[in-house]
TrEMBL record:
Identification of the protein by name: Ornithine cyclodeaminase family protein
Coiled coil ranges: none
Cellular component terms per the entry's GO annotation: cytoplasm
Pfam families, per the entry: OCD_Mu_crystall
Entry superkingdom: Bacteria
Species for this entry: Leucobacter denitrificans
Length: 330
């Protein structure tokens, strides 16, 4: 039995952000056989205690491939020079449940997460009501300066060529490293990137797109400052006790989620703003609604998208890598 292994360099080579975004949207619309992924069918992620952290298992199944991502989450690792999230993805044939590939998990996550976020953002931009369009050269504000901030900035630069970027973070040295990394990345070389930490409120007022990728427990900014045409995306936290935006933004925005079930279980951004009755009577649209054209935006309202990470997304991305390698399309 031959099992292919894809290291971090292979994952990035076979799965550029635009390919990942397209694969996710195609999966939600339906493949050639008419099989569409429904985020509401995705099972809960499985957490278990680990030394100074936790294990995270994310199984998912599909018609051709199934798989499981096995990760460790170590909150103290960044201070020790190691990655917070590490692990592997194991891909199986759905027909025989035979392992066919193993992929380096952190690099898969580093591409999957921004691909999901920016897929949602670009679709929301396309749904903008007349007069509320995102400018051709938008101002993109990113809260956070870690791995996901870099990945989201790189993906956003593909979706919004000509955008300028503002960064708000806690550690000046990490912001400096992020700006250097963006200037060295091929697809983002020459970007205008500024540290706006000292004037975060003004940066929020000016932003056309706001992306939050932090581990915050409390809202990062006053939601009343967000422009009416702006798109806000929060993808940095999971757990009902953590949040990146406040109820003011939730109350005035059109709401969109990865999956309604996962958001209700794990997304603290909605925990105090939406009741159980709200989830039943008027739930947010999910990613499949966006991909299948079943969502609209309201004039005069910002759009807010939030995700916590779902197992089906990793399966789609891992399957795209395996299919690309099999077809020899590198």
């Amino acid at each position: 039995m031959s099992i292919s292994f894809f290291d971090a360099a292979d994952v990035e080579r076979f799965l550029p952000f635009d390919r990942a975004m397209d694969a996710l949207e195609e999966a939600l619309r339906g493949d050639a056989n008419g099989v569409a992924i429904n985020p509401e069918d995705d099972g809960p992620r499985l957490f278990s205690d680990a030394p100074d952290g936790e294990f995270l298992l994310m199984p998912a199944q599909g018609p051709t491939y199934s798989g499981v991502k096995a990760l460790t989450v170590a909150p103290n690792n960044p201070e020790r020079g190691f990655e917070k999230i590490q692990g592997l993805y194991i891909l199986y044939s759905s027909d025989t449940l035979t392992p066919v590939a193993v992929l380096e998990g952190a690099s898969l996550t580093a591409i999957r997460t921004p691909a999901v976020t920016l897929s949602a953002v670009r679709q929301l931009a396309n749904l903008a009501p007349e007069g509320s369009e995102i400018p051709a050269a938008p101002r993109v504000l990113i809260f956070g300066a870690g791995v996901q901030a870099l990945s989201h900035a790189r993906a956003a630069a593909l979706v919004f060529p000509g955008a300028s970027f503002d960064i708000v973070g806690r550690r000046p040295e990490r912001i400096a490293d992020l700006i250097t990394a963006l200037s060295e990345a091929q697809e983002t070389a020459g970007l205008t990137v500024r540290d706006r930490t000292s004037e975060a409120d003004q940066a929020v007022r000016e932003a056309d797109v706001i992306i939050c990728v932090t581990s915050a427990s409390d809202p990062l900014f006053d939601g009343n400052l967000v422009q009416n045409h702006a798109i806000v995306a929060a993808a940095g936290t999971h757990g009902l006790e953590r949040r990146e935006v406040d109820d003011a933004l939730i109350g005035r925005a059109d709401l969109f989620v990865e999956g309604r079930g996962s958001a209700q279980r794990e997304n603290g951004n909605f925990a105090t703003a939406l009741s159980a009755d709200d989830w039943q009577a008027n739930p947010p649209k999910n990613l499949q609604d966006l991909a299948q054209g079943n969502a609209t935006r309201t004039p005069g309202k910002p759009a807010f998208y939030s995700g916590v990470g779902m197992s089906w997304e990793d399966l789609v991305c891992a399957s795209a890598i395996a299919t690309t390698e099999i077809e020899g399309d590198s």
